[in-house]
Amino acid sequence: MCLSIHYRRYTQALLKRHIEAAGLSYVSGGYFFTSLLLPRYIQTIIEKFKKQKVLIVKELEIIQEERFTPLLYEKFLLTDFYIFKIFRLLGIKIPGLSAYMICKVNK
Question: What confidence score (pLDDT) does residue 34 get?
Fold first, then answer.
């Protein structure tokens, strides 16, 4: 069985162009999941070396059977967001796995 999954990675600049094309105005934006950049980079190296996708879904399903694990993930990712929010407030832009943008409707 072969699964095809498509992920799109947006930079702030590309995301900003899309929201402006949609008639919205940029308010603020940034990245999150910064602490996951290194594991993702390692995963892409492994995928290139093996020339196949590394499927970690089964491992995650096994781990998530334990009750505390989703809460642990949530706390870890929230901590990641708040730690790197300090950098954003200081004007230091650090990339992450996900980009977000807050917009407003043009009138």
Answer: 86
